[in-house]
Amino acid sequence: MEPVPSRAAERRRLQEAVAARRRRTSILAGVLGLALLFAGGIGVIISPSNSLALIVVMSTGIVFLLVAFFLARNTIVGLRGTLRNN
Asked: Which of 46, 63, 67, 75 is nearest to 54 (CA)?
């Protein structure tokens, strides 16, 4: 007979699932942002005649990077105290 999970355990599991989903979304947005940023930069070097469209692509990449940092904000704040090992 399995023990019935408590409400606190369910809440903790739900919070961990939400945190994992936010990390996954943050990583995906960051990778996509970097890809767009570098693709736009390389595109401007290769084809300067299309620079306006490629600057828009680069700007979209920057927005995705900002979204990734925004989603990872709580994780970064949580790491602040653990980085110092004096």
From this structure: 46
| Three-state DSSP state, 56 | helix
Burial of 24 (0-12, 13-18, 19+ CB in 10 A): exposed
DSSP assigned state of 50: G
Q: Cα 41 to chain center, whole Å?
A: 21
Stated pTM of the model: 0.71
- Give the whole-angstrom CA distance, residue 39 versus residue 59: 11
8-29 per-position pLDDT tens digit: 878 888 888 888 888 898 999 9
* Start-to-end Cα distance in the chain: 48
